[in-house]
Design a protein that fits this description.
By secondary structure, this protein is mostly helical. Helix content is 72%, strand content 0%. The chain is built from eleven helices and no strands. Helix 1 packs antiparallel against helix 4 and helix 7 runs antiparallel to helix 8. It is globular.
């Protein structure tokens, strides 16, 4: 319950209300996450939101690992419940009538506490995807989907791998609108350049003439 409540704190919404007097859930992509905050009120506040949302995942996992014996039979199962509670809190916040963010930053905090090496590999994958395609949504979902395999490769317990697969599923479901826009060529890139296939095609035709 504590992990869920802490995960439910909508830092992005609180920050944008405080510094800009706007409701971030009515601006841009209407998401409370760091990407939308950065676009609407500035990169600095986007970074602050990112760090705070990461802490929503990191702190509950780190506290559980510190308080509960890692040698107990139910340790991995209990930790898995903490992991799921934190991400569900962020995505379905009790303070936002069970709406919320997409969970990427909170998941990053979870994995940083759970398996720093696996998290590092996922971050590198994210950076590569961003460099190649420049879609935050694509890079986020691919990295999240890779985490169950990465955790398995680094020898984490089966309950945590299953929890990671559930997290990846929730994150992908939260990005389904982004997927639809990508298929239509309307998804906004991080650097603000939208892809318009028709325009590209017309330029190609005119240059060939």
């Amino acid at each position: 319950m504590a992990a869920y409540l802490f995960g439910s704190v909508p830092f992005g919404k609180l920050i944008t209300q405080r510094v800009a007097g706007i409701d971030i859930m009515t601006q841009g992509s209407r998401n409370i996450g760091a990407t939308n905050v950065a676009r609407e009120v500035g990169v600095f506040w986007g970074i602050i939101t990112l760090l705070l949302d990461m802490l929503k995942g990191y702190i509950p996992v780190a506290l559980y690992a510190d308080v509960v014996s890692q040698h107990g039979d139910g340790y991995a199962v209990g930790l898995s419940l903490v992991v799921i509670s934190a991400i569900v809190g962020h995505q379905f916040s009790i303070f936002l009538r069970f709406r919320g963010g997409k969970g990427v930053a909170t998941a990053t905090g979870i994995y940083l506490a759970l398996s720093p090496l696996a998290c590092l590999v996922a971050v590198i994958l994210f950076i590569v995807m961003m460099y190649k395609w420049d879609f935050v949504s694509l890079a986020s979902t691919v990295s999240a989907s890779a985490m169950p395999l990465l955790l398995a490769g680094f020898g984490e317990a089966p309950p945590l791998i299953i929890a990671s697969a559930l997290l990846a599923t929730l994150i992908c479901l939260k990005h389904r609108g982004n997927f639809k826009r990508m298929l239509k060529g309307k998804e906004r890139k991080w650097r603000g350049k939208e892809h318009h296939p028709n325009k590209s095609r017309s330029r190609s035709n005119s240059s060939s003439e």
